[in-house]
Each structure stands twice: as structure tokens, then as C-alpha cells.
TrEMBL record:
Residues 67-86 are annotated as: Disordered. Keywords: Iron, Iron storage. It comes from Halorubrum glutamatedens. One of its GO terms (biological process) is intracellular iron ion homeostasis. PROSITE patterns: FERRITIN_LIKE. InterPro entries: Ferritin-like (IPR012347), Ferritin-like_diiron (IPR009040), Ferritin-like_SF (IPR009078), Ferritin_DPS_dom (IPR008331). Residues 1-151 form the Ferritin-like diiron domain. This is Ferritin-like domain-containing protein.
Length: 151
């Protein structure tokens, strides 16, 4: 049986992934300008991966006789990933993505530790896989950040 901490972290990660999908989608729609196109395309690609993460987390919760949170249980937390007032402020979106990725990385590291303590190698393996994906996203957006800051 999974620990309460593992279940709580799985539910938190699930909600974060769903919120990320919403914010990536919104930012991919609202960003304007030629310079925004590469970021918009990256966000659109990442949406599918983040949805896959949510699906995997939800399935793991189900396997543990728990369930992912529904919208009534959802609390938005990604303030920095809200679409910017200036639709050409691509750097604000990049920095919001980086903050969200850092949060996901922290959550997955906590989940790895909690799963290890609970002797739950399946959840631990899932968290390691998702952590790797989030670190790759962070690396990609750090590159974008360097490019935009140098201009």
C-alpha cells in the first residue's frame, strides 16, 4: 500500500501537469510576433508530453486505489506562467516555463524520495522518467532564455 505522502505527491503532480497544459496552450495562442513562433511551436509540442505525464500519473493513482483530483479540487499555482499583458513579451513566457519546470522537478524529486521510503519502486520509476522529461524541457527553455537575454 502506498503511503499518504506518495498519494499526495502524485495528486499534486497530476494537477500541476494539467495546469501546465492549460497555460502552455494559452500562451501558444496569445503570443504574437515572428520571434514568438519557435516558442509557440515548442509549447504546442510540450502540451502533448505534459498530457502524457498527467495520464501516467492518473493511471498510477488508480493502480494505488486512489484517484486524480477533479477540477473542484484544483487550486491554480502557476502565477508566473499566466499569459503576459504584452503578447510580444516572449521572455516572460520563457521565464514562466522555467519556473514551472523547476517546480515539477522539485515535485518529482520529492516523489522519488517518498516512493523509495514507501518501498514503491513502480512509482519511483515513473517519477524518475518524468523527472528526466522535465529536466530536458528546462534545458530547452534555458537555451531560449539565453538567446532572448543576449538580444
Amino acid at each position: 500500500m502506498a503511503s499518504d505522502r506518495v498519494i499526495d505527491l502524485l495528486r499534486e503532480a497530476y494537477a500541476d501537469e494539467i495546469e501546465t497544459v492549460m497555460n502552455y496552450q494559452t500562451n501558444a495562442i496569445v503570443l504574437d510576433g515572428v520571434r514568438a513562433e519557435e516558442i509557440k511551436e515548442s509549447l504546442k509540442t510540450d502540451i502533448q508530453e505534459e498530457l502524457g505525464h498527467a495520464e501516467a500519473l492518473g493511471q498510477r493513482l488508480k493502480q494505488l486505489d486512489a484517484r486524480p483530483p477533479g477540477s473542484a479540487e484544483f487550486t491554480a499555482r502557476q502565477d508566473s506562467l499566466q499569459p503576459p499583458e504584452d503578447s510580444t513579451d516572449v521572455l516572460a513566457v520563457i521565464e514562466g516555463v522555467l519556473e514551472a519546470e523547476e517546480g515539477a522537478i522539485d515535485t518529482y524529486r520529492d516523489l522519488i524520495d517518498a516512493a523509495e521510503e514507501a518501498d514503491d519502486p513502480v512509482t519511483e520509476d515513473l517519477a524518475v522518467t518524468l523527472l528526466s522529461d522535465e529536466e530536458a524541457h528546462r534545458t530547452e527553455f534555458r537555451g531560449f532564455q539565453k538567446e532572448y537575454r543576449s538580444e
